[in-house]
Amino acid sequence: MKRLICFAAALLLLPLAAFAKTVVVAGIDGAISPASAAYFLRALDEAKQARAELLVLRLNTPGGLDSAMRGMIQGILASPVPVATFVSPSGARAASAGTYLLYASHIAAMAPGTNLGAATPVAMGIGGGIGKPPAAGEKPTEGKERAPDASTMEKKAMHDAAAYLRSLAQLRGRNAEWAEKAVREAESLSAEDALKLKVVDFVAADLPDLLRQADGRSVGLAQGEYKLMLTDAAIVTIEPNWKERLLAAVADPNIALILLMLGIYGLLFEFYTPGFGVAGVIGAISLLMALYALAMLPINAVGALLLLVGIALMAAEAFAPSFGVLGVGGVVAFIAGSLMLIDGDIPGMEISLAFVVPLAVASALMLVGIGAFALRARRRPAVAGAEAMLGSTAVALEDFEHEGWMQAFGERWHARSETALTRGARARIVAVDGLTLVVQPEQKGEKS
Which domains does the chain have, with CATH numbers? Predict the structure, then answer.
């Protein structure tokens, strides 16, 4: 009887355990990239499977890729789990792409001492940024500098971004006028000012404070209005897995550039000194990872070509010395190509000049070292095969006039000689004809 009562009690408690209130927490600290987008969407999916009450995204970002940002926003808009974006800790920011994520979220919160804004789309490709038109009533005068008008493509990008952020503001009932200023005039706000202008819902000191203020609020989901019940909710933190960490590491343009260099160096070393294998394997793996990383980034074709030309010139200097002309040209082309490699001034996706210059110098020195090693290896006498046997000594095992048997390198060889040899006579190997040695008798006084 007691067992039956315990079993019934366990069955009654099962629904309560299955539907316990849970808050899932994820964090992005850095540029918005395909890696961070994959991590966030996985966290969103796990929150959905756990039937979480809320997903909190801790955000600290300078911006990032538009495609990754839009993928995250699409996930938020279609999510059956409410999403709260929390710009924290103090000193963090939600600039550029981060502003769009904040506007798209069901709840937007900021910690004291944080900021958001500067959501102007950056210009892609070679050329200046988006030109700023003169202020209202301002007339251009002679001798006064004026920024060039934006091109048609730049205007389209500006209008598209402004309309996108405005639509998100209207969807969430937030300040649409300031949203457009953030895009067109690159305006930014502190947390307190954002609260006053109704850009965010509230300012929270920490996560418990955010949950306390969000408790009982109604948010709009695709399925309809939903009231948050966050009292005594269990907090579950989701960390990036190894795949997302690896993707985030290689998606850094500076890391991708290092992998590209390692791949090229490894393959060059393997081609000029065949037989080792290790350099070729490392080079192939590094090159494939670099190509995978670069495929996720907006690459400038001219920058990529300059980079390859620079590597080719430095390699040519190593194997065909030109008194430094090719080497200097290669270093200059390498630096220029590296700085132009990423197509556009995307926040968090820049290649540092302080990183590129030492890498270019190290590349030149490494290529010179590889070339010197390869040339030394080519000039080294052969140590195996038929070439290594030439000039060595063989000893006749019998008397013979034209053909007979001789001992060389501890083995019996069939030999051919134009001069008769006696048993024990020494001869010099001058050629190897298949499995037959061609020999000549050693001259008197000749050292073996």
Answer: 20-135+149-240 (3.90.226.10), 252-379 (no CATH), 386-441 (2.40.50.140)
